Give the backbone structure.
Amino acid sequence: MKTSSALGRLNAEIVRCRRCPRLVAHREESGANPPRRYHGETYWARPLTGFGDPDARVLLVGLAPAAHGGNRTGRMFTGDQSGAWLFAALHAAGFANQATSIHRDDGLRLKDAWVTAALRCALPANKPAPDELARCQPFLLTELRTLSRVRVVVALGRIGWDNYLRARRVLGWPPPIDRPVFGHGATTRFADGTTLVGSYHPSQQNTFTGKLTRPMLNAIFMKARELLESSPD
């Protein structure tokens, strides 16, 4: 109950945030002038909270919501092809009750997993500014402190990887046992029992080119499942 209450307070703070003028302008413009296929829809057009199981042992850290995905639907990785790939893989590994993520009231539930991002607003050209990441970092820090059962962290892309490592340093948590080098399937262990797993981001840039395939993404979450089973709770 304490975890849920703390996350509820954090989420209320996140959705009110207007700290980054460039991102505020982009998320609102995206909603005001959507592509033809989304004409008539009311966009969320606010920052996105993390979501999932408050008792999660697996944490996913991505980059930012998509302008016409999460920024439209109001839930991380929902309503776009990145989410279609991600939740199919989570479902295959037993972390989601369904393989699709269409809108925030579609019945999707995560078990033992929590999804978050380094930035909470849709991002122009997927290129964050250092000051924007810094302004958003307190939200991630609060999530990390609150989600006390996390044992496996899956970084979806290099920015997710780097920002998780940076957040640990800010929190004063134990440093990596192994030298952390990002790559798909790369792992880094920490003295507190946490393992960081790297994954290519399921962006269309990666999936359309074949840099990331469905079996490759499925393997990441199967690895997360194996790490949980071999780790003390």
Summary: The first strand starts at residue 51 and ends at 52. The CA atoms of residues 99 and 146 lie 27 Å apart. The chain has a mean pLDDT of 96.
